[in-house]
Specification:
Chain A is an alpha/beta fold. Chain A has helices spanning 6-20, 44-48, 60-71, 91-104, 134-138, 151-163, 215-223, 246-256, 271-280, 306-312, 316-328, and strands at residues 3-5, 24-28, 53-55, 76-81, 114-119, 144-146, 168-173, 180-182, 199-202, 207-211, 233-237, 240-242, 259-266, 293-297. Chain A has eleven helices and 14 strands. Classes of the chains: A alpha/beta, B alpha/beta.
Chain lengths: 330, 319
């Protein structure tokens, strides 16, 4: 299996879409000759030509609307929001149009559209280029929200998203682009059932730690730390946030009796708050030994300075301390 | 381009169908059997009719919140439209869309839209599809004067022009965005100049002259397909009714409304012209009776249609 970065794995999946579906095309800001702000589409313009890899003006509203209109008339657009923060300029086509048309038009229209965007902080890019807005989209019926954490699942999730017939918000945390691993470059899945399934990254019996996107990688580091060597930690990567694999989390908490939810996004009205609500309203409530904890980003815009950014985004030590606190404060 | 007699009668029939369809809606609303609100296009029938009849079934349209006329002129079935407004299972959207969201893909209608300017970027996307699929068709995008002050109007025109997409932008300037007079809302005063600033040839016409609308749209379609560039048409028209059912008409005078009703009404003007041209009064009366019969039967059938299903509302959100 070839080793590749997440950025390369996403490019590989995009190539497979362009190779196999003549109705597939890419559109976005600087995705052509520049290769995308994070290099994901580097070389695709040369390979597929300007009819398939469309550089657009800086116009997020029409980039998303273009995707909606093309998707309902037989094409398979994959459009890019250069930084997912800019998706706020495209909220009408995504929230009022893409998410609604299938339902509102009585099922007569599908909107098979993927909107990719680079999300998250940790790069010093400050408040308007570092947000984790995924929860917004989870609140909108009609959208699916996908958050890969590394090369293999980014590749698999993108292909599953392409096979799906719904509008997909595909949030790629900037810090996952350079993570490398060996990637099995599978063919298209026969259906999109991967979407909505979480994955147990490591099995354990003392505590369930649930996370998604790049925070999964921080949790992985944390649970390797010597301070936690006496504990058996079960780590779940949600991978898809809408639909949400609540059942997987509930069955895990049934086993461990403890729950820590870790995310970069701020906590109120978020994926994490939903996970905890759903777990404590389930049968697993009776098995819970200590109150579940939501370790989230601070409710603050992302600062630029490194030490402040580290304060806003949960760090490895915060995760270690939270796990110890939950297990030992019984 | 001169229209043959059959086409003229078709234009007359379609305008009348829209007028009587919406009058029937008003009547049902006043009897309390229609839930929700609606935006009537009474007075604007010539624009929808002339534009849609100049297109083929394979040409596409996007419509607006004031879209009953567009749907009907593009071939929608009155029974399924009434059923939709009444929340019945046989409605175009199974009662999930209602007045503002009727889509009829079998006739090339990609759907009415409740967001002002919401369909402009979608029309650009559909235009991109037509171009990539190498089809000899256009998409005609209806929107109102209110839409030209939305950001998406500008982004859509810019991209359609840059990418040379087969889009006809058709602005129905009925002179008010809800209560805001367009002259108080449009800096610079000219809608056409905005199109021209994006390199799109624009023309402003009398939107209550159905033959003129038909011929202009037909000409624009020919130009879009031969030159591969979008076109822009402003149809100046007027709505007689309020913006929606809550409107008290505080922003305009009865004199103004009556002037348009008496001097500029598209149906009165066109039927008068047809009679001058030698059509028989009885021909027009026969059409009127047929249309009345159709409306009556469709309302009856729609009222007999079962209420739309309450199950699967969550599942129906996804394909």
């Amino acid at each position: 299996m070839p080793e590749m970065s997440t950025g390369q794995a996403i490019k590989k999946a995009l190539s497979l879409c362009l190779d196999n579906y003549e109705e597939a095309f890419l559109a976005g800001e600087d995705i052509g000759i520049y290769g995308g702000a994070f290099g994901v589409t580097d070389g695709l313009l040369e390979q597929y030509g300007e009819n398939r890899v469309k550089d657009t003006p800086i116009s997020e509203d029409v980039i998303a609307g273009l995707g909606v209109g093309a998707a309902i008339t037989g094409m398979r657009p994959i459009v890019e929001m250069q930084f997912s923060d800019f998706i706020v300029n495209a909220m009408d086509p995504i929230v009022n149009q893409a998410a609604k048309l299938h339902f509102m038009y009585g099922g007569s229209v599908d909107v098979p559209l993927i909107v990719r965007g680079a999300s998250g902080g940790g790069t010093g890019a400050a408040a308007q280029h570092s947000q984790s807005l995924e929860s917004w989209f989870c609140h909108v019926p009609g959208l699916k929200v996908v958050t890969p954490s590394g090369p293999q699942n980014a590749y698999d999730l993108l292909l599953a998203s392409f096979v799906d017939r719904n509008p997909i918000i595909f949030m790629e945390h900037k810090l996952i682009y350079k993570i490398k691993e060996e990637v099995e470059t599978n063919d298209f899945p026969k259906d999109s059932s991967l979407l909505g399934k979480g994955k147990i990254v490591s099995e354990g019996s003392d505590i369930t730690v649930v996370s998604y996107s790049n925070m999964v990688n921080t949790v992985k580091e944390a649970i390797k730390d010597k301070q936690l060597e006496k504990y058996s930690v079960e780590l779940i990567d949600l991978m898809t946030l809408s639909p949400l694999d609540v059942d997987l989390v509930i069955s895990s908490v049934n086993k461990t009796g403890r729950l820590l939810m870790c995310q970069e996004a701020s906590g109120d009205s978020s994926v994490g708050s939903t996970i905890i609500t759903r777990v404590v309203s389930s049968d697993a409530f009776k098995k819970i030994k200590t109150p579940p904890k939501l370790l989230s980003g601070l409710h603050s815009p992302m600062p630029s300075a490194k030490h402040l950014e580290n304060k806003v985004i949960p760090q490895k030590d915060d995760i270690i301390n939270s796990i110890i606190e939950i297990i030992e404060n019984e | 381009m001169s229209l043959d007699n059959n086409k003229k009668l078709e234009l007359f029939r379609t305008m009348l169908l829209i007028r009587l369809f919406e009058e029937a809606l008003e009547e049902m609303f006043s009897r309390g059997i229609l839930h929700g609100t609606m935006h009537l296009s009474i007075g604007q029938e010539a624009t929808a009719t002339g534009a849609c009849l100049a297109l083929t079934k394979e040409d596409l349209i996007t419509s607006t919140h004031r879209g009953h006329g567009h749907c009907l002129a593009k071939g929608a079935d009155t029974f399924r439209m009434f059923a939709e407004l009444l929340g019945r299972e046989d409605g175009y959207c199974r009662g999930r869309g209602g007045s503002m969201h009727i889509a009829d893909l079998s006739n090339g209608n990609l759907g009415a839209n409740g967001v002002v300017a919401g369909s402009l970027t979608i029309a650009v996307g559909a235009g991109h599809s037509l171009k990539m699929q190498k089809k000899d068709n256009v998409i005609l995008c209806f929107f109102g004067d209110g839409a030209v002050n939305e950001g998406s109007f500008h982004e859509a025109l810019n991209l359609a022009s840059l990418w040379e997409l087969p889009v006809i932008f058709l602005c129905e300037n009925n002179q008010y965005g809800m209560s805001m007079a367009s002259e108080n809302a449009i800096a610079g005063g000219s809608i056409i100049k905005r199109a021209e600033s994006y390199g799109i040839e624009g023309i402003s016409i009398d939107g209550n002259d159905v033959e003129n609308v038909y011929e202009t749209v037909a000409g624009c379609k020919e130009s879009v397909l031969s030159k591969g560039k979008p076109r822009f048409i402003e149809c100046v028209t007027y709505r007689y009714r309020g913006h929606s059912k809550s409107d008290r008409n505080l922003y305009r005078t009865d004199e103004e409304i009556n002037f348009w009703k008496e001097e500029k009404d598209p149906l009165i003007r066109f039927s008068g012209k047809l009679l001058e041209e030698g059509f028989k009064k009885s021909d027009l009366e026969n059409i009127e009776n047929e249309v009345k019969e159709e409306i009556k039967n469709s309302v009856k059938k729609a009222l007999e249609s079962p209420e739309s299903s309450e199950t699967n509302l969550e599942e129906d959100s996804y394909a």
